[in-house]
Amino acid sequence: MILSTSRRLDPRLLRRRCLACGYDGALLRNGLAPRCARCGCDLRQRPARSYVEMEGIPGVSDHQSPRLDPIVEVQFVHRWVAFMFMVMFGLVVVIYLSAAAFSV
Ligand SMILES: [Zn+2]
Fold first, then answer.
1. From ligand 1's centre to the CA of 61, what distance in Å?
2. 64 CA to middle of ligand 1, Å?
3. Which residues, 6 or more positions from 54, have their beta carbon under 8 angstroms from its beta carbon?
4. How many angstroms does the Cα of residue 42 sit away from the middle of ligand 1?
């Protein structure tokens, strides 16, 4: 579950926004509105674009998300396993100290 969600690009990076004021609300209709609802910028002259479009990341659209680099993915798994180990270790310590406190 966590791995599958981490592989997806943040939806905020795919949302088109007004280049003049940064507005990305519903009234912009994902760049299809003729004017920006906030600042009145003519979106036909200066079309709204997403960060992904501005950065020119190839192969990314609203329906397609890039996969993480396999090395980054492995590092993420290692960090997740280390985190879970620390959580379990902390839980064991808390249980041990609780048992010691109640046995006195
Ligand atoms: Zn605007």
1. 22
2. 26
3. none
4. 9
